[in-house]
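In response to the reviewer comment on reproducibility (Comment 2.3), we provide here a single inverse folding case reported in full, input and output, so that an independent group could reproduce the run without further information from us. The structure tokens appear first.
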């Protein structure tokens, strides 16, 4: 989708399931997003420290080493990171409540419907910053 308002926007996908990361990466890349991935909260923090700041974070809640809620607590320590919109993708029973509690812009139940995912990204990934 060249020319789409979100083309070139950066999304960080944080999920411990390899197949889910790959599927999300393919869907997002085919829609014009630039995608980075992390397999847990620890890996995600390293990505935030060492790479370009993402325009949006897609976050799973249940992961080894550092879960999504702990990642968000660590994310709160850096003002620049707190400003990054976040969408929670999870299959946990109380996922919607946890997503609200950690300040997510949206919650999508796993397995994620790709149409709803792309709609949520278009809604919550800011487009005002496109003119660099």
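Designed residues, in position order:
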């Amino acid at each position: 989708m060249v020319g789409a308002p979100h083309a070139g926007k950066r999304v960080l996908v944080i999920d411990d399931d390899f197949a889910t990361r790959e599927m999300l990466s393919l869907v997002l890349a085919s829609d014009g997003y630039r995608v980075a991935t992390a397999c847990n909260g620890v890996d995600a923090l390293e990505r935030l420290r060492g790479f370009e700041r993402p325009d949006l974070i897609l976050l799973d809640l249940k992961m080894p080493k550092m879960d999504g809620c702990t990642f968000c607590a660590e994310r709160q320590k850096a003002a620049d990171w707190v400003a990054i919109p976040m969408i929670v993708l999870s299959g946990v029973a109380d996922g919607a409540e946890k997503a609200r509690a950690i300040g997510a812009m949206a919650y999508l139940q796993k397995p994620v419907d790709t149409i709803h995912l792309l709609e949520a990204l278009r809604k919550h990934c800011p487009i005002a910053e496109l003119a660099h």
